[in-house]
Write a structure and sequence with these properties.
alpha/beta, Glutaredoxin, 2 domains, 5-stranded mixed beta sheet, globular
Length: 202
């Protein structure tokens, strides 16, 4: 009899552990489950006021209405920017296939050449839903400062100059703000997986 009771107790314990594991696996992930960086949720990101592709003034509240991937670059960039922007566009498409809508955003750090029309043509080449933003020197500098990016002219050529700049992509959520950044080496699949995790957690 005692043997039967012991077996029953063991089975009950297994069932309890299994049930707890199942519940744990079914719960929604938290932000810390998604690989958030140590600086996520800190002082990166914040309000900005820029000019969209139609020439209208917009703010961060107008742009960040769903999970948003923000990249600072410039349209004359010969190598880094096109690869990063294309990667973000590919990640957005992967997420769309999973039923997750994400806004890709391109903010120029070269407003002298990147007019609303220029950034519109540029972003349209990468993704139909990509938003291109420009603005005055002061507006661009304020947005860059908010996201802790850096940029500077590389030479004095009046027309064909290049720009040195940060190359991170920033994931920002409407309610949580900045939550994660991505490096150049991160694949579209990795970006999509992490964004999907944050989308489920917020």
């Amino acid at each position: 009899m005692s043997k039967v009771i012991a077996i029953s107790a063991s089975l009950a314990a297994v069932a309890l552990v299994g049930g707890t594991f199942a519940i744990t696996q079914m719960r929604a992930p938290s932000l810390t489950d998604c690989g958030a960086t140590a600086v996520a949720g800190g002082s990166i990101g914040g309000p900005f006021e820029l000019i969209d592709e139609t020439g209208q003034t917009v703010t961060d509240k107008d742009i960040i209405t769903q999970p948003t991937l923000i990249y600072f670059g410039y349209t004359f960039c010969p190598d880094v920017c096109p690869l990063d922007v294309a990667r973000n566009a590919a990640a957005v498409d992967i997420l769309a296939e999973r039923g997750i809508n994400v806004t890709p955003v391109f903010i120029t750090i070269d407003p002298a050449r990147d007019t609303p029309e220029v950034v519109a043509d540029y972003t349209d080449n990468f993704h139909p839903n990509m938003i291109g933003l420009t603005g005055s020197d002061e507006q661009i500098a304020a947005a860059s400062k908010a996201y802790r990016t850096v940029y500077a002219k590389q030479d004095d050529d009046p027309e064909y100059y290049l720009m040195q700049h940060s190359t991170f992509s920033y994931l920002t959520m409407p309610d949580a703000g900045f939550v994660e950044f991505f490096r150049q080496v991160d694949s579209p699949e990795k970006v999509a997986d992490i964004v999907a995790c944050f989308a489920a957690a917020t």
